[in-house]
Structure formats: structure tokens, C-alpha cells
Amino acid sequence: MREAGLVVVGAALAGLRAATAARRTGYDGPVTLVGAEPHLPYDRPPLSKAFLADPDYAPPTLTDTGALSSLIIATGSAPVSLPFGGHTLRTLDDARAIRDRIPTAERAIIIGGGFIGAEIASALAGLHRRNDVDLRCGTTVQAVDSTKVRLSDGSVLDADLVIVGIGARPALDWLAGSGLTLEDGVLCAAPGICAAEDAARWHNPLFDATMRLGNWTSATAQAEAAARNAVGPVASPFSTVPYFWSDWYGNRIQLVGVVTDDVTLLGCPGDESWLALYRAGDRLAGALALNQPGRIMKYRNQITRHAAWQDALKLATAC
After folding, report:
1. Among 56, 215, 281, 301, which one has the highest count of C-beta atoms within 10 angstroms of its own C-beta?
2. Cα separation, 117 vs 228, whole angstroms
């Protein structure tokens, strides 16, 4: 039987980065990359950011290339679905199915809301309304059929295309009964086993908190760290400042750090550019910006350095 060496389960971004990082560390043993999809590894963010908008767009294909010595779990997450049906967007085949419907769909309904919290979400709601998107808040979906969506407030919406975006759960069913601790992600405490990206839940020393991240930048960094720990002589703790971005109607939304209930909004929510700072005790915990790409990265550096809250406010007035 051929030795599998380092086995990486999950052939998306994190899986490929882990395999590549193992080679870069000097590991010359066998590497086995296992993926559930029939496609070669590809980058997922463009599925929602470019693939649906461009009928000729093809996502970039990532072509880096028995008994196991180490295992990296990088199976990501699976979208939460509704019993009524509707499209979800996670894989290339999902994106193709949605894109095929777009040319003939006059009325599309997206089920699922924001990612930040009520106050900031209300500020971002203006972006939708200024772009002729009918935003319905404070209501839930009761039923979906082939042409209509029924809401809990009694309203009925006509629909040619329904897309469900209500979150995702770690894809870990295959690990049931493995003995690993599965708690909204893998809590790894087994020799020779590491986890990365959406599948991993770990203690982040920068925030002294256990977290699970599902964004592109963290998946990349965490996968590379998992590979170094899997094939290296000594494992090192992984820490990172979460970073997330999204593009809405030509506007760039960026979030660094973590969101707390103590938020200070700098600027007017109706403006094309503003900043929100999140506080934890006397420290800056996170920052959210609309159309301020240069400033947001300065706050990411501040969070890494455990900057005091007053220093964060000074930076806001200095920029």
C-alpha cells in the first residue's frame, strides 16, 4: 500500500494552500489532497463577486500540485438550506445553476441579511435602497413555491429566482464518531491532526477568545500555519486579526477584528464613506469601513498591537 504521508481533506483554497505550504517548509514526503467536487481546486470568492455578473467568467483553476503521517481537516462549510427549496451558493455548480437562471429572471429574491449588527446594518441598508433593492427587515420566510415567497408579516412576493443566504455550518459530518471534539468546528487536540479555515475552531491569543472564521484571508493564513505545524518539529499557536470584505454596487465594505456591542460610528450613515469602531474594554477590537480602504488597514495594524481605544480615536481624527 502506498504511503499517503500528509493527507489534506478539502481541496478548496485552504486545502491547496496547506499542501503548498508543506512543500515550502521542506517537507518532501507524500502529499494527498482529497476533494468532494469533480472540479480541480478553485477560488470560491469570485463565485459571488464576479462569476454571476459576467457570463463569460471562468473561475481561476488552482493547479498547484495507505498510511498517513499527518492530517489537515479543511473541508470548509456547507450552506444552511430551507425546507422550501431555493438556490444556495457555495460551489461552482451552484454558481452555474444561478447564472443560468439570471437572463430570464425578472424578479429575484434573496433570503438572508447582514453580517454586522442592527445599527451598522441600518446604515448599509441605504446602499440597497439607493440601488432599487426592496429590503424587507423584521420578517421571516414562511413558504416558497415556484413563483411566490410568503413572509411572516403576511406579504407575498412574486419571484422568478430565489437564492438562500442564511449562513453556513462546518462540513464535519464525516468526522462523527472520530473522537475529535466537534463544537461548531473542530477543536483539535489530537497528535498529528490539524484543522483550518471554516472547519476549525481554535483559541486566538490576540483576542483571548475561541473563534471560527470563514473568510478568505484567514483561511489562507490558517491553512499555511496548519501545514507548518503538521510537518514541522514543533507546533506554534496561530493568531490573526480577522479581515473580511464585500463589494456592494461599486462600494467596498471592509471589516477587521471582531464586532462588539460597544460601537462608535464616525461619519453619517447616509454618506458614501464612513467608519465604525468597536471597543472591548480599553482596547480597539474591530473596525468597519465603507469606502475607506487605506484607513482600515491602519486599524488592522492597531488591533495587532493591542492599541488603546484613545489611540484608535486619534487615528480617526488624524486621517
Report:
1. 215
2. 36
The answer to whether the beta carbons of residues 197 and 14 sit under 8 Å apart is yes
- Taking each continuous run of H as one helix and of E as one strand, the counts in the chain are 7, 20
List the one residue out of 280, 246, 296, 234 whose CA is nearest residue 124: 246
Report the range of poorest mean pLDDT among 61-65, 157-161, 180-184, 287-291.
Answer: 61-65
The torsion angles phi and psi of 68, rounded to 5 degrees, stand at -110, 150
Contact 216, 195 (CB under 8 A): no
State the pairing for strand pair 108-111/161-164: parallel
Pairing of strands 31-34, 5-9: parallel
What is the rounded CA–CA span in Å between residue 213 and residue 218?
Answer: 7
Cell of 62: 488552482
**How far apart, in whole angstroms, are the C-alpha atoms of residue 138 and residue 181?**
35
Cell triple for 191: 497528535
Alpha carbon distance 16, 291 (integer Å)? 31
DSSP one-letter string for 88-100 = --SSHHHHHHHHH
Strand, coil or helix: what is 221? helix
**Gyration radius of the chain's alpha carbons:** 21
Measured distance CA(116)–CA(122) in Å, rounded: 10
Regarding pTM above 0.85, the answer is no
Residue indicated by cell numbers 463577486: 49
Q: Which of 127-131, 139-143, 275-279, 293-297 is predicted with the least confidence, judged by mean pLDDT?
A: 127-131
CA angle 87, 91, 93 (to 5 degrees): 70
Domain 243-318: what homologous superfamily?
Answer: FAD/NAD-linked reductase, C-terminal dimerisation domain (3.30.390.30)
